[in-house]
Amino acid sequence: MKKLILSVMILAMVSACKKETKTEELPGYLTSDSVNISEYNEVSEATIPFKQIELTPDQTTKILTKQNNDTLYVTNFFATWCGPCMREIPHFKEKMAELKSQPVKFTFVGLDAKEDWATKVKKFAEENNLSKNIVLLDGEQLNHEFFLTNFKQWDGGSIPFTFMRKGDKTDETVGMMSGEMLSEKINSFK
Question: Is 130 helix (H, G, I), strand (E, B) or coil?
Fold first, then answer.
């Protein structure tokens, strides 16, 4: 069943536009330590233009690996077409605002079809003041090895999926989280 779901997800991504998109180097805010984190977690009233930053699976693995600092990295895999993903985003935004001065880095990995990056994802990012927190990943490039390398529980069969890491400690959540659940998981890293 999981293979079927993964196949359907990959097939949906295959139907995406074949336009060439430049893959950029990892931006500094994805690799920075806790000293510079707060400026990128700010939830402001001004709309920050969305810049499409496409990551390869290898670059995504780099942002998921252990960092030698005191920062908690919260990485959420989502899509704008995913109802549960959209329902949990307000909880993440609340935590981002609450923890903006603490060493916590939130990154949202968008799994929408490439044809929706400049429209639906852009609109979502700007409306939710998440432009600096969203990176894009082409689901067509994901394979079984990507999931085996990076996760214990997630096989890519469903989203949302949230991966948290602080040093050697990790937490994986497949499915939507409530605000309370998100708070409990974040607090478990203190």
Answer: coil
Cβ-contact 99, 41 below 8 angstroms: yes
List the structure tokens of 42. Answer: 């700010």
Structure tokens at 120: 């639906």
pLDDT at 89: 98
Predicted pLDDT at 148 = 96
Inter-CA distances, 181 with 88, 128, 187, Å? 11, 21, 10
Locate 78 and state its tokens.
């989502």
Distant-in-sequence, close-in-space partners of 11: CB < 8 Å, separation ≥ 6: none
**Rounded distance, CA 23 to CA 16, Å?**
17
Say which DSSP state 68 is in. S
- Name residues of the chain where pLDDT drops below 70: 1-45
